[in-house]
Design brief:
By secondary structure, this protein is of the alpha/beta class. It has a single domain, classed as NAD(P)-binding Rossmann-like Domain (Rossmann fold), CATH 3.40.50.720. Helices cover 42% and strands 18% of the residues. The protein is built from 13 helices and 15 strands. The strands form 5 sheets. A 7-stranded parallel β-sheet has the order 6-5-4-7-12-13-14, with helices on both faces. A two-stranded antiparallel ribbon has the order 1-15. Strands 2-3 form a two-stranded antiparallel ribbon. Helix 3 links the parallel strand 5 and strand 6.
């Protein structure tokens, strides 16, 4: 046992520890939202969630478990506790999920390791054969800085940069909490290629191939991956930048997978375009914390804002639940970013973007809310948690 008082260690967009009780409170709150938002229906489905410990992947797992009774195998790549050093938030999220799912009579297993590796694919296949059988739904929700290619052994690093010309704009300096100018130099061809290798669709394709070869894909299977498009304010460094190029690769491969699954199994592969949310990854992207702070202030005032769990409640209750046909746009995307991209929302964000500076950004944005949501990710500033009380940090799942 390692009982200790855990206080946040935060610098800018980096938090190096997490609070297990705060993370547990987050999980319980999200479970309640699913229970209240989707009538329970027992389906007997098996779900594989790749990237299951935070954000949209975690929310997907909660929705599939608590709305449809799915048996879930979750993959994560998280730091376990080590003596006085706490685990990462995703590790504690998973421990809390397992504790509650077990108490509620649901079957769940998790594997902690590199989802890009052949070793993890083999381990997953063995686990599915032993305890699950064929999967009915595959959720792919990975946002990674690095991938070692399993065939070549080459290490690829993803970058978030514009393509062709520098980007100059404004951002929140999270360390000093001021509005500051930012210039991002354009990516090299090598950086573009590397980012596609990490964040594109090749790994998802490899997962489907491995599962198909092992005869672990059920008829009428659903595969879903996640992407983001966002407002034109962020396009230079996102949609039209290196990440956007990687997401184009993901889209092309998912379209091919969709046709293949339809022909062979009567299944489908989709991409859900989700809204901007606060994550540790997004906090590291220049411009995005400022954009989200303005966006949330406007969406909260309209009563249309959603956290990842709210987005996944919509995805699985309106598009991908049992017996449903998803509503697709002309490019075959599921659009959960519809509220973010309402014209009155994007116009208001653009107007404030032109006005905002260090003197007024607390009035023109919900930066205080952004800051709290960022801390919430790691289990801090959550509800009624007593942060002066010593807690057990050596948890397992």
């Amino acid at each position: 046992m390692a009982v200790q008082i855990v206080k946040p260690r935060i610098r800018g967009f980096i938090c190096t520890n997490a609070h297990p009780v705060g993370c547990q409170a987050n999980i319980l709150s999200q479970i309640d939202e699913i229970k209240e938002g989707i009538p329970y229906k027992e389906t007997g489905m098996n779900a594989l969630v790749i990237g299951a410990s935070t954000g949209y992947g975690l929310a997907s797992r909660l929705a599939l478990t608590y709305a449809y009774g799915a048996k879930t195998l979750g993959l994560l790549y998280e730091r376990p506790p080590d003596g006085r050093r706490t685990a990462s938030a995703g590790y504690y999220n998973t421990a809390a999920f397992h504790q509650q799912a077990t108490a509620d009579g649901f079957f769940a297993q998790s594997l902690n390791g590199d989802a890009f590796s052949d070793e993890m694919k083999t381990e997953v296949i063995d686990q599915l054969k032993t305890d699950f059988g064929k999967i009915n739904i595959l959720v792919y929700s990975i946002a990674a800085p690095r991938r070692v290619h399993p065939n070549t052994g080459v290490s690829h690093e993803s970058v978030l940069k514009p393509i062709g010309a520098p980007y100059t704009g404004k951002t929140i300096d999270l360390s000093r909490e001021v509005i500051a100018p930012v210039t991002i130099e354009p990516a090299s061809e090598h950086e573009i290629t590397d980012t596609i290798a990490v964040m594109g669709g090749e790994d998802l394709e490899m997962w489907v191939d491995a599962l198909a070869d092992a005869e672990l894909i059920a008829p009428e299977v659903t595969v879903v991956a996640y992407t983001y498009i966002g407002s034109p304010l962020t396009w230079s460094i996102y949609r039209d930048g290196t990440i956007g190029r990687a997401k184009d690769d993901l889209k092309a491969r998912v379209d091919v997978l969709d046709q293949r699954l339809a022909d062979q199994l009567g299944g489908n592969a989709y991409i859900s375009v989700n809204k901007a949310v606060v994550t540790q990854a997004s906090a590291a992207i220049p411009v995005v914390p400022l954009y989200i702070s303005i966006l949330y202030d406007i969406m909260n005032a309209k009563g249309i804002n959603e956290a990842p769990i709210g987005q996944m409640r919509r995805l699985f209750s309106e598009h991908l639940g049992p017996g449903l046909q998803p509503q697709l746009d002309s490019e075959r995307y599921i659009r959960l970013d519809d509220r973010e991209l309402q014209s009155e929302v994007t116009n208001a964000v653009t107007e404030r973007w032109g006005q905002i500076d260090t003197d007024n950004f607390h009035e023109l944005s919900d930066y205080a809310g952004y800051r709290q949501r960022f801390r919430n990710l790691f289990g801090f500033e959550v509800g009624d948690v007593d942060y002066d009380e010593a807690v057990e940090t050596e948890l397992t799942f």
